[in-house]
């Protein structure tokens, strides 16, 4: 059986499974519709049984369950945080959940984005997420919005009057955008973040507490912001924070005490500790939530932050075309007779590498911490009449490294070449079994 046949069959089965799921969901919906409970109002018999374990809690009781049922929330980001958060909120019976994400499911998402399964790869994350949530709870309404929050989020917030918004994204421009929209429309914002072994959580603009701008009137310098794609993250750390976002949201929707406003919770997964840090109060001069706000409608957040509102890497182009070689040319020089420097981090190099390559991370080269090693390699190249090739994940850092070498070793006969497109291009054009991550 050919690869193509396998892929076609897998796609057909996935499509059939989806149709079946939709039909089951519709059936369940029809069955539960209008089955009002003669023994209770507003909640159906099915709902009473389903939520009984939380309804019998004094903190929730029937009135809290009804509040959840009548709530409408917006979750932005169906990734590491949005998946666990939405699972618990759907399970708890939040009546209407709108989920925004522009992205599609990738293999490297599955270790933490627990609503997405193998057969969802390539599908919009919101589609994959809403299918699972509907299967979990057919009583509630899930609205998937496969859009970038910047395109039409203001319209959605204006139209829908959400009771809470969850920021489950991973970039500064979106954080400011959601903050400003929530303040302008007076909606609490449940904000989470996770990186490596650490996570953070707080609720902005709640009960006269501070907003994101009160704490961070100026965005962080773009180069200091690390995302999961670069720094990595443990799936269960996202789970901890996402589930806590769900908890805070339930508390807000049911008007419980103790919402995490004016406080920041810091979770350290390496020590398994939680710390509560008191945050500053609402700033009366804050540009958006202050007493005389300047910002009354969304601004240009990408310009404000000097960063893009997504984590898709933008390819740079700082070299002349004759300073590049293609991955096809690279294949011909991987025989050990040339010097190929892989400038990814040591951890990435350890994870997977091409044969006969050496590792010198660009971060060290940039900070002049590899001069000795570079001098040694350049000497070896000169004496052996070899070229030096620079390689990285996508071809950006290798361009920077090539340019550094050309400047710092300008008086040598050795030629420095950048491998265009890096290991991603190698995997695409030469050997698809090389892992693209
Ligand atoms: N402005 C935005 N509009 C819509 N979705 C957004 C926006 N900004 C971020 N997101 C989404 O938020 C989610 C953040 O989750 P997370 O960081 O776990 O995933 P990721 O971007 O897939 O990570 P990776 O870096 O591994 O590719 C992503 O699915 C991303 O598409
Ligand atoms: Zn503020």
From TrEMBL:
Domain Rhodanese: 334-435
EC code: 2.7.7.-, 2.8.1.-
UniProt-recorded Gene Ontology molecular function terms: adenylyltransferase activity; ATP binding; metal ion binding; nucleotidyltransferase activity; thiosulfate-cyanide sulfurtransferase activity; URM1 activating enzyme activity
Coiled-coil region list: 6-33
Keywords: ATP-binding, Coiled coil, Cytoplasm, Metal-binding, Molybdenum cofactor biosynthesis, Multifunctional enzyme, Nucleotide-binding, Nucleotidyltransferase, Transferase, tRNA processing, Zinc
GO terms under cellular component: cytoplasm; cytosol
Cellular compartments annotated: Cytoplasm, Cytosol
SUPFAM superfamilies registered for this protein in UniProt: Activating enzymes of the ubiquitin-like proteins
Any one GO BP annotation for this protein: protein urmylation
Binding site for Zn(2+): 211, 214, 286, 289
Sequence positions that bind ATP: 80, 101, 108-112, 125, 170-171
InterPro entries named among the record's database cross-references: MOCS3/Uba4 (IPR028885), Rhodanese-like_dom (IPR001763), Rhodanese-like_dom_sf (IPR036873), ThiF/MoeB/HesA (IPR045886), ThiF_NAD_FAD-bd (IPR000594), Ubiquitin-activating_enz (IPR035985)
Pfam families per UniProt: Rhodanese, ThiF
Primary location class: cytoplasm
Required cofactor names: Zn(2+)
Co-factor note (free text): Binds 1 zinc ion per subunit.
Active-site residues annotated for this sequence: 228, 392
Pathway named in the protein's UniProt entry: tRNA modification; 5-methoxycarbonylmethyl-2-thiouridine-tRNA biosynthesis
Family membership noted in the UniProt record: In the N-terminal section; belongs to the HesA/MoeB/ThiF family. UBA4 subfamily.
Function of the protein: Plays a central role in 2-thiolation of mcm(5)S(2)U at tRNA wobble positions of cytosolic tRNA(Lys), tRNA(Glu) and tRNA(Gln). Acts by mediating the C-terminal thiocarboxylation of the sulfur carrier URM1. Its N-terminus first activates URM1 as acyl-adenylate (-COAMP), then the persulfide sulfur on the catalytic cysteine is transferred to URM1 to form thiocarboxylation (-COSH) of its C-terminus. The reaction probably involves hydrogen sulfide that is generated from the persulfide intermediate and that acts as nucleophile towards URM1. Subsequently, a transient disulfide bond is formed.
PANTHER family: ADENYLYLTRANSFERASE AND SULFURTRANSFERASE MOCS3, UBIQUITIN-ACTIVATING ENZYME E1
Name of the protein described by the UniProt record: Adenylyltransferase and sulfurtransferase MOCS3 homolog
Species of origin: Tribolium castaneum
Gene this chain is encoded by: AUGUSTUS-3.0.2_01194
